[in-house]
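INTERNAL AUDIT FORM
Audit reference: QA-55
Scope: verify that the stored structure record matches its stored sequence.
Auditor: D.O.
Record contents follow.
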Amino acid sequence: MKRLKMKTIEKELYYQGEIIVRYVIEFPEVIEDEYQDKKFNYYTRKEVLKLKNFAEGEFYQFAKESYEFNKKNKYPTIVYELYRQCN
């Protein structure tokens, strides 16, 4: 049986001193030294990196625009959250 280790990446992104994005990405890593396990881990890390880049790029930009709109119109600030959970 393969042994899995769960890993988590968490980060809060700020804009003008306030948190506007929070993300948590949980992913498995196979703890073996076989070629197939390395391929699985490589693929998983690649997918996690894409999601992390989305959170810190496009998602963050959207949150900044929303923040500016809300401040301008005296609406409350929204903290956007992205969660990827692995069971």
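Auditor finding: record pair retrieved intact. Strands lie at 4-15, 18-30, 80-84.
Action required: none
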